[in-house]
Write a structure and sequence with these properties.
The strands form 2 sheets. A 5-stranded antiparallel beta sheet has the order 3-1-4-7-8, sandwiched between helices. It has a 3-stranded antiparallel beta sheet with strand order 2-6-5. Helices cover 24% and strands 23% of the residues. The chain starts with a helix and ends in a 12-residue tail after the last strand. It has 5 helices and 8 strands, in the order ααβαββααβββββ. It is α+β, with helices and mostly antiparallel strands.
Length: 147
């Protein structure tokens, strides 16, 4: 499977590592079947005011072997059209990255609207189920390589 992905997208691993390599940043991810473009535009909604309520800090294993890590996170395709949302937050902003939410997202699967959101300027982009990396123009720290 990894060979097929690299045949389609030979730069995937290098592009991923470039996106999560700035000093002074902390990187997180979130797996969802929600629309990745909407999350890039609106931010990542949360029910609780805690990063660890919906995100996982990117471990070294993800950086070392991003394709196999993504395959594991996608759960052998038990998720339909999964997207892996990538977040990059400066270390000094991590405590303040979550803000109060006043909007009900279009694609929300609960009765009550989410109380919090990680703003779009911290959303690097997402990895879709075809292993394309879609970057978010609103992300403040996007390397010039991706603009």
């Amino acid at each position: 499977m990894k060979e097929e992905i690299l045949a389609r997208n030979p730069n995937f691993e290098d592009e991923f590592r470039d996106l999560v390599s700035l000093d002074g940043m902390r990187y997180f991810y979130h797996v969802t079947n929600q629309n990745g473009d909407e999350i890039c535009n609106e931010g990542l909604y949360l029910v609780e005011n805690r990063l660890d309520s919906t995100t996982i800090e990117i471990p070294q294993e993800f950086i070392d072997d991003p394709i196999n890590y993504c395959l594991q996170e996608n759960g052998d395709n038990y998720r339909k059209n999964p997207n892996i949302i990538l977040l990059g937050i400066p270390e000094e902003d991590v405590k303040y990255a979550i803000v109060k939410n006043y909007n009900k997202p279009k694609d929300w699967n609960q009765d009550e609207p989410p109380l919090y959101v990680i703003p779009a300027n911290y959303v690097i982009g997402y990895i879709n189920n075809n292993f394309d990396i879609i970057t978010n123009e609103q992300y403040e720290f996007l390397n010039e390589h991706y603009l």
